Amino acid sequence: MGEQQPTDGDIQDALKWARLRRLTELGFFKTQDGLRWAAAYGLVRSVWRNGPIENAHASRPTSRRKALHDETMFARNTWLTQQAFDVLGSDDQFRLYELEDLVLDRVWPGCEGTLTDFGWGFLRDIKKHAKQRIDMLAHFEQRLSPDDFLVFASAPWVGARDDHYGMPRWPACVEAAACRLRGEDEEFRRAEGDWMTRIGPAPAAVTADLEATRELLLESPWELGAENLDWFAWNPILRPRCTQA
């Protein structure tokens, strides 16, 4: 027997649960355009991050495929989240297919390479996955009200992390990092000093103008460039302080 399709009632119950137990509790409705940012994050997770690109990310480079390190994914993921946010602000009925084009576009701002360079050997699977997810999302966009579609797009993913770019706690993460780069967080220095010594000093491009670095991290991290984002990837300096959590 085929898999039973969810009824409209099932979908509405799931959306109600998502609004109350995920989006409201995590503060998405308290921030400007919070629901739209949540949906943008969800779209990127669904169409891009949780797909075959992860196989390329986890695989060793070859003579044809460049190494897809964490800093490159940091730049790519944040840029795509911003693009998804912008697409969701469009009234174009084909806006999700515009997002598909952006996901598969050759240009990777902040990175020295393209999808072909970083995804060689996985390109067919990446393209197939993106198309299938976009087609599914477009189907539900036709069935749901605009707000319900944003909840639908975000619901499977927003509970995973609320401190990534575009999420409610991202500004607190950036402010904490800026404070620590200025040497103003003694508690962090005591707790993480040994680990930060092993990580090493921040790149000169990061410390040359800390206010510019703070603004780029907050608004457009990819503009720092993957080589500088390497220092921030998995770095506890981006954890929000306890008083800001």
Can you give a write-up of this model?
This protein has 245 residues and is mainly α. The model has no long low-confidence stretch (mean pLDDT 90). It starts with 7 loop residues before the first helix and ends in a 13-residue tail after the last helix. The chain has helices spanning 8-24, 34-49, 53-58, 70-88, 95-103, 115-119, 123-143, 146-154, 170-181, 186-199, 204-207, 210-219, 226-232.
Taken from the alpha-carbon principal axes, the silhouette is globular
Structural class by SSE content: mainly alpha
Our Rg estimate from Cα atoms comes to: 19 Å
Could you give the distance between the termini? 48 Å
Oligomer: single chain
Quote the average pLDDT: 90
The poorly predicted ranges are none
Q: Biggest sheet, in brief?
A: none
Helix content: 55-70%
Q: What is the H/E order?
A: HHHHHHHHHHHHH
Number of strands: 0
Q: What is the tally of helical segments? A: 13
What amount of the residues lies in strands?
under 5%
Produce a short descriptive summary:
This protein has helices at 8-24, 34-49, 53-58, 70-88, 95-103, 115-119, 123-143, 146-154, 170-181, 186-199, 204-207, 210-219, 226-232.
Give the arrangement of secondary structure elements.
Blueprint: H1 8-24, H2 34-49, H3 53-58, H4 70-88, H5 95-103, H6 115-119, H7 123-143, H8 146-154, H9 170-181, H10 186-199, H11 204-207, H12 210-219, H13 226-232
Helix pairs in contact: 2-4, 2-8, 4-5, 4-13, 5-7, 7-8, 9-12
